[in-house]
Amino acid sequence: MNASPLASSTDYRTQDPAVADRFKRLYQRPVILTVDNLRKDFGSNGTTRTVFDNLSFNIHRREFITVIGPSGCGKSTFIRIAAGLDDASGGQILLDGQPVSGPGPDRGMVFQGYTLFPWLTVKRNVMFGLEMRGKDKSTAENEAGLWLDMVGLSKFENSYPHELSGGMKQRVAIARALANEPRVLIMDEPFGALDAQTRAQMQSYLLQIWRKVDVTILFITHDLDEACYLSDRILVLGTNPGRVVEFIENPVPRPRSPAQCTSPEFQALKHRLEELIHPPVEIEEQQLPMVRLTEAGDDVE
Amino acid sequence: MASPSPLPKRNSDFLGLKKELPPRRNWLLGAASFLLPLVLWSIVSYVPWLWHPLVHVTDAGEVEMFSEGMDLPRADFDRANTQAVTEGLTPGKGVRVNPVYLPAPHEVARAFYTAFTTPPRLPGEPWLHQSLWHSIKVIASGFLLSSLVGVPLGILCGSFRFFSRLHEPFIEFFRYLPAPAFGALCVAMLGIHDAPKVAIIFIGTFFQQVLVIANTVRKVDPGLIEAAQTLGASRRKLVTRVIIPSSIPEIFTDMRILLGWAWTYLIVAEIIGATSGLTWFINQQARYRNFDNVYAAICLIGFIGLGTDILLAKLGTLIFPWRRRNRGPSFLGSLISRLIKPLKKSISNAGSATAPATVTTPTPTPAAADTPPSA
User: Fold this and answer.
1) Most Cβ neighbours (<10 Å): which of A133, A239, A277, B359?
2) Residue A2 has pLDDT above 50, yes or no
3) For B274, what's the count of Cα atoms within 13 Å in the CB-facing half-sphere?
C-alpha cells in the first residue's frame, strides 16, 4: 500500500482544538457501558481456547463507537455478549452500572442478515418490540409510524420484507431496534451485505438518525473507511488472544461528510488502522506452476 | 458474413436445467402427465391384437364346451375349435377381450356416473355417496384428533429441548410399529364400528406428525429468535409470536403431506371390524365382478386426495401472503383464485390490515429504493 504524503505528515493523534474540546465534553457525559475484564473461552472436551481476555473500557452516553479487528479477534463474540445472546466466561458488562445478563430491550441489535420477521408487514415489524413491552396496539402503531417516518419508509409500511431492497430492509431493522428506545444500539456489520452505493447512503442515514436520537451506538465493521467515517472512537481489537490494541479518538471533525475521506486526518487515521489490522508483513507472490497456453507474442501485460 | 440470424425464440428450450417453464407450458405438461397413462391404458384396451389374452364367445356353434358370453383363454378356444372342425361340427365364434379385471377407460368413465346413480343391490346397503361420506368422516375425525394433540406437541418438542428429549425417543420407536397391527386391539377396546377405524388413522398419523412438525419447528431461523430476544420478547412470546408464525407455512405443508398418508391408512382402517365406507364399496363390487366400479372408486380416492391438496395449497398462498412469489399460477390455481376472489375481497374489506387486496405482490423499483428519508 502506498502511504500518501499526507498520512506521513499528519499524526492521527493530533486533534483540531474543536475536536479536542468535543472529546473533553464527551468524557464529561456519564458512562453508559462499562466493560470490565471481560473474558470468553470456547471449550470443547477439555481443550479451551480463549477468544479474548482482559477486555476493559468505558463508553459514554451518545458516543458512536466502531469496533474493528482482524477476523478471529472475537469482535462478534464481544458484541453478542454485550447484547446478552452469549455468556461471558469471566468479567462483566455493566449498563448504567447494572450488570448485563441475558438479552433485553435496553440493548437494541441490528444484524447483518436483517432478521426482519417475514410474516409481518414493515409496520408490524417495527411494532413488535413495542408490543413485547406491553404497549397497546394503537400506541404502538403511532410510534411505529413515527419511526418509519424517520427512516423514510412510511410509504412501505404495509409491504412485506421480501418486497424491499437490502438497504430498505436494514432501515426497517434500525427503526425496529430504535422503536424500543434502547440505551445502546448494537450493530453487527449491518451494511456488510450491501453494495457500495447503498452502503454509503446507509452510513449517512445512520449519522442523521444518531444525531436526532438519544442512543449510544456500538458498531462492528471490517470496513476501515466506514469505521473512520462514522465513529467518535474506534476500538481496535487484536488476535491471539483477543485484546484491546488501541482505543483511538477519531480526529476527523464533525459534522461528517463523504468529502472528508481525503482530508489529512482521515488519511492518517486510516493509515494507522491499516497498520494495526494488517501489520506490514511481506507477502511473497507465489509463482504458480503454469505452462504457457497462449501463442508467443500474444501478451496481455 | 451471412445475414444476421433471427433472434433466438424465447422459451424455446423445453429441457432447460432447473429453469421455470412458462405457465401455459407448465399446464400443458400437467395435463400430459394425466394423458400419458390414459393413452397407454387406451392402447391396451382398444387395440385388439395387443395382449387381449381371452376370447369372449359370441356364438357357441356346435362346440359342447362353449356357451355364449363365456370368456376363455385363446389357446383353449382355438384347440376346441380345431377339434370341432375335425369332428365336422360348426366351430364357435368369439372376439378377443381383456380379462374382466381390466375394463376399458370408457367403461370406467361410465361406471363413474352409474356408480352414483345405481341403487345398492340390497335395500339396507349404502349408496356410493354414502360410503364416500362415511370414509371422509372417518379420515377427518382421525386426522383432526391426531392434529389436535400432535401439532401442539410437535411445536413443543421443536421449541424446547426438554420436551424433545422427553417424548421423541418413544415416539421414534412407536412410529415403526405398523398401525394395522393394532387393528385387533382397537376392535377389542373400541368395538367394531367407527371408533377403531378412527384409532388406526390416529395411530398412523400421530407419531409421524409429532416428529415431522418438531423437525420443521427446529428449522426456524435462529436469527429471528435472537432478534426477538433483543426486542424484549419473553420465552412464551418467543413461541407464540416468533416460532409458531415463522414455521406455520411449513407446518401447513407438512399437514398436506400427512393428510395424504392418512388416506393410505383409510383402506386398512376400513377393513377393521365391520368393513365400511369406500373399502366396503370396492370389496362389494369386486365380489360382483363389477371391476369398472372398483376402478371408478379407486380413482375417486385419487381425485379427492389431489383436489383437497390443490385446494389446501391455494388456501396456503391465501393465508400466508408473505410466502407469495411471482410464479406463474397453475390452471387449477388460477381457477380457484378466481372463485375465491370475492371472498378475499370481503375479508380485506373487513379491515384486516394483513390481507392485501392483490395476489401478485409488486416489487419496489430501484428508484423507490433510493428515496432519501424525509429529513
Assistant:
1) A277
2) no
3) 8
Domain limits of chain A?
Answer: 5-106+182-277, 116-181
ipTM field: 0.86
Residues of A in contact with B224 (CB under 8 A): 115, 117
Q: Is A52 helix (H, G, I), strand (E, B) or coil?
A: strand
Do A238 and A69 meet the contact criterion of CB atoms below 8 Å apart?
A: yes
Residue type, B126: P
Amino acid symbol at A282: E
Contact B232 A133 (CB under 8 A): yes
Instruction: For residue range A46-95, list pLDDT tens digits in order.
Output: 788 888 888 899 999 999 999 998 887 888 889 999 999 999 898 999 99
H or E segment and range at residue B346: helix B331-349
For residue range B203-248, list pLDDT tens digits in order: 999 999 999 999 999 999 999 999 999 999 999 999 999 999 999 9
Determine whether the interchain pair A103/B226 forms a contact, defined as Cβ–Cβ distance below 8 Å. Answer: yes
User: Which residues in chain A have their CB less than 8 angstroms from residue B370's CB?
Assistant: 201
CATH domain B128-321 topology = MetI-like fold (1.10.3720)
Q: What is the largest CA-CA distance in chain A?
A: 77
Q: Which CATH architecture has domain A5-106+182-277?
A: 3-Layer(aba) Sandwich (3.40)
- Nearest chain B residue to A208 by CA distance is B375
